[in-house]
Amino acid sequence: MYTQALDLPPTDSAALASAPSSAAIPFDPRAASGQSHFDAMMDADGKIEPQDWMPSAYRKTLVRQISQHAHSEIIGMQPEGNWIASAPSLKRKAILIAKVQDEGGHGLYLYSAAETLGTSRDQMLDALHTAKAKYSSIFNYPTPEWADVGVIGWLVDGAAIMNQIPLCRCTYGPYARAMIRICKEESFHQRQGFESLMTQMQGTPEQRQMVQNAVNRWWWPVLAMFGPPDTDSPNSAETTRWGIKRISNDDLRQRFVDATVPQAKILGVTLPDPDLKLDEATGKHAYGPIDWDEFWAVVKGKGPCNQERLTRRVSAHEEGQWVRDAAQAYAAKQRARNQVRAEMEAA
Ligand SMILES: [Fe+2]
Ligand SMILES: [Fe+2]
Question: CA dihedral defined by 330, 331, 336, 337, rounded to 10 degrees?
């Protein structure tokens, strides 16, 4: 996923604490000309690479956004992962395992991209595990029924694609390149979710009702996933100038609603919004008010599953310590062997 275009004001954003301070960035004697190079690159919509000079605010914003995105991918493995053992067929189980594994991979690409900005993976994980860093609030909702898995694919991955396609053109090279592959995989995720729901909708009345119930649960949190209204997003002008955010939260949300309404019709489900209505003149759908109080409550840790997600994440990390130890021991052994070989060849 899953950025949620979450422009937290600095005082409210503990995630900023995990970003490197400008003091941590080595002094660059070319900095004076660096700014003009950077500005020229922004004007030309070019790419900034890790070795290039960049303003510290650009670096901080990227570290916050990319690490938040990585955390969302990793935490996002949980609500669907909970269904792997209970998937209704071998085919669905294989698809679900592959999808959850893809999300883990997305997290790893993104942690790698963020590391190129000078922050370590340990720092980022520490911020996540101590609840200083945010992740997409959508993953703090539960998946009580099998249909929730299909709805996550259709709606949550669908919203993610809408949000993330513009990031493939982000001015920061490593992020943009990671997003190209991620978007291809998200597209598969969205289609498998829709196909799974389509199959369930051709089943029994109970199965159809299960799908409708899941749509009712997820619709509003998914609309909130695009982040606060544009009037409430203080950082948007700067991130737009930097080519990090190219389409506003409200515009992305509108595109998502307009794309999803016809899909819901094909599926045969009702979107739970009595105010949802097509404006014939514009071709856009009007929709009802989003409960922003609920959104902020979930962002601030009071969602139905915040505690469960974090506890599970921390224990998975602790249980994986032996794997990291083994990988490091192996790498050290390889280095020692290579050194001995190099010395023998030199002798
Ligand atoms: Fe993903
Ligand atoms: Fe996905």
Answer: 70
